[in-house]
Amino acid sequence: MEDNIEIEICETNRGNEQIIINKKHKFNFSFQRKDKSKIYRCTEYKTLNKCKSLIILNDKKEVLKYEGLHNHLEKEIDVSISVAKHKIKEEIKKNSIPMDIKPKHTFNAVSQEMGLICPEYSTIRSQIIRNINKQFPPNIKSFDDIPIESKYYKTKRNENFMINKNTDLIIFQSPFQAYIFSNYHKHIFADGTFYAAPKFSYRLFTTRTYVGEFNMFYTTSISILKNKKQSTYETQFKEIKKKIQINFGKNKKNILRYHEVKNNNDYNVNNWNYYENIEHLTNNASKSYNSYLSNIFPNKPLFYKLIYILKEEENLSYNDY
């Protein structure tokens, strides 16, 4: 048996135990003996090479036997990829909020530890993303599955982000967004998008307001709607205004009810909140934001991934204000 055998515990893409020897060869778990020792065979054992090299470890991961007569070239690059994947996976597991994980930052930290033998980021990026996605909570598949309480319903500043949830909609609005909505209410814009809405929902509906002193638009609420019933929209705006009335009692607001304007030709255009501002005669401010969200998600987003992005956007607006 060789002296100075360097052993590193790793795992395969499927999560099975793997042993790295001297940063040059990989051994996959084969079977466990009655004395609880484990036999690992070279990864080339089941290939055309039929390499018969193996290593036997006891339950303390101490080497009992090592046959290192490989009949193939060393695989340092392949080994480095496996080690990097494993180290990154372990780092990902340490983070309780998977959405906060930055793949490139995690890779950089691991690559500095590994040194020159670390593979290129592009070669393992997809595996990193898969490992991050595995840390997400179970995907929401229906409105009934949406929880009333969740650690994901907190902003970066640990404030409540979800203000209302019933069988037909869920509304997100931070205290900062409620403040903007209450104090800059002259021009309110609203619109919905189907593309950025989770699969189980009908559409994502946003309200935005124009802050003239900064010449900026700010998102003031985001709702996930289950259907297009008139009552759903009415409940949505009722709850948004109720929240504002609680926080800012002196300011009761009217909001552009886009669904009423769209479905009622007799609706008085003077009730549109942006009527007096000739620069904003359409709801393109909301449409452009919805298009922006749609571009972020090439496919309909997972519920928790969507919430994460909305919170990130809210925090950017808060810091920008």
Overview of the molecule:
With about 325 residues, the protein is of the alpha+beta class. About 35% of the residues lie in helices and about 20% in strands. It contains eight helices and eleven strands. The strands form two sheets. The chain has a six-stranded antiparallel sheet, with helices on one face. A hairpin with a 3-residue loop joins strand 7 and strand 8 (about 170).
List the SSEs and their pairings.
Layout: E1 7-11, E2 17-21, E3 25-32, E4 38-42, E5 54-57, E6 63-67, H1 76-93, H2 103-114, H3 121-134, E7 162-165, E8 169-172, H4 175-183, E9 188-193, E10 203-211, E11 216-225, H5 230-247, H6 258-263, H7 284-296, H8 303-320
Antiparallel strand pairs: 1-2, 2-3, 3-4, 4-5, 5-6, 7-8, 8-11, 9-10, 10-11
Could you name the key traits of this structure?
alpha+beta; five-stranded antiparallel sheet; six-stranded antiparallel sheet; 321 residues; single chain
Short synopsis of the structure:
The chain is of the alpha+beta class. The protein contains 8 helices and 11 strands.
- Low-pLDDT runs of 5+ residues are 246-276
Helix and strand sequence? EEEEEEHHHEEHEEEHHHH
CA-based shape: elongated
Briefly note the structural class of the backbone.
alpha+beta
